[in-house]
Amino acid sequence: MNEKTTASPSRRTLLGWGGAGLALGAAAAGGTAAALRLGDGSQPAASAGDAVPFHGAHQAGIATPVQDRLHFAAFDVTTTDRAALVALLKEWTAAAAAMTAGREVGDGESSDYADNAELPPDDTGEALGLKPSRLTLTFGVGPGLFEKDGKDRFGLKSRRPQALIDLPAFPGDNLDPARSGGDLCVQACADDPQVAVHAIRNLARIGMGRVAIRWSQLGFGKTSSTTPDAQTPRNMMGFKDGTRNIAGTETDRLDKHVWVSEKDGPDWLAGGSYLVARRIRMHIETWDRASLKDQEDTFGRTKAEGAPQGKQREHDEPNLKAMKDNAHVRLAHPDSNNGVTILRRGYSFTDGTDGLGRLDAGLFFIAYQRDVRDGFVPLQRRLAAKDALNEYIQHVGSAVFAVPPGVRDKDDWWGRALFA
Q1: Which of 149, 185, 167 is CA-nearest to residue 59?
Q2: pLDDT band at 18 (very low <50, low <70, confident <90, very high)
Q3: Residue 44: predicted pLDDT
Q4: Would you call 364 helix, strand, or coil by DSSP?
């Protein structure tokens, strides 16, 4: 990234970061995008290389037009010092504001220590010269931040939202604890994978000694869209996904289904949302041997066009009764779930093989909603019990987070109202 920040004395002198970092890497990728508007309708459009405004009433990366790449990280808080945690969140916010604007983390060349080669640089450097690439960083807090092993860790137990539940076990789950949970999360989305990886790497480095990455997931090939005029993306099974997803311009639906209102409580979360992340392994080899008819019956859509069964075009109103009782679209449709609607921001992933010659690939499902108890939980209970897709998938990782409202200005920071 090609601009420098001008801030107060370097964090290196205060934190003693040292030279250690995360051994992460990704190939840079370019791209173009049509002009798009942000979810609240108040900001101008951003093309693939441009910056998405960091400050606002809601955090970017929710209703924002979905970018091409993802690096999602869940963190365990390792410090027991509330003041140290608050200091970290302030430092993270400053770093996030810089990186989303295309600037370096820290003081850069303005630092009094910039010429001291004995000190590590403020920024890890792999994004130097790269454009912001519509980078968004979305922050959330998990149940463990409020209470863990029966202990009120940071004096926050009474401020835990009632809707921030521990997700129940669903039929068919095979969750790996090492890929589940987390006290904090950061979702980094960008059109350049190196920009997204750089962001998580630097936040992890800043947090060293106070937080540690519990698990992370790289994603590519967005599987949902928040821009209805854009082409609907396809998932790893070759089917279009997110045809009826909430659009970032649909402020009425966002208010109804995504943003926590003041009356929902608690007050510190008003304007925020709830995030559910699920790592869904696809049994690719089994799916690839299924007939086209079986595949289309499983989803309830045609594979080529994405039209509901019995219809001609993707966006035709579906006739749910024309689909099989266990078709995915029929079971997931709001009309089959008393109007339950969530905003999806999922990504495909492939993480090598499973040691048995099969691809470790699938969908990293991300959903935002106003209340998990009225959104993901009843929907997943229905799908887990009846969905024909269950023959070809398995949920292997899971987490839930409360996502605070946006950072209002340069004096605000992630989670400020929670710790007030």
Answers
A1: 185
A2: very low
A3: 38
A4: strand
Region 242-246 average pLDDT: 80
* Rounded CA separation 115/254 (Å): 49
Residues in the chain, overall count: 420
Cα separation, 126 vs 195, in Å, equals 8
- Give strand pairing partners of 184: 75, 141
Q: State the alpha helices, DSSP H only, in 59-140.
A: 82-100
Contacts of 68 (CB under 8 A, 6+ apart): 29, 31, 190, 191, 220, 221, 222
Alpha helices in 258-389 (DSSP H): 284-288, 292-299, 328-332, 376-386
CA distance 196 to 183: 21
Would you tell me the crossing angle of helices 193-206 and 82-100 to the nearest 10 degrees?
160
CA dihedral in degrees (18, 22, 27, 30; nearest 10)?
-70
Distance between CA atoms of 154 and 152, rounded to whole angstroms?
6
pTM: predicted TM-score of the whole model, two decimal places: 0.87
The confidence band for 107, taking pLDDT boundaries of 50, 70 and 90, is: low
Of the ranges 31-40, 107-116, 238-247, 298-307, the best mean pLDDT one: 298-307
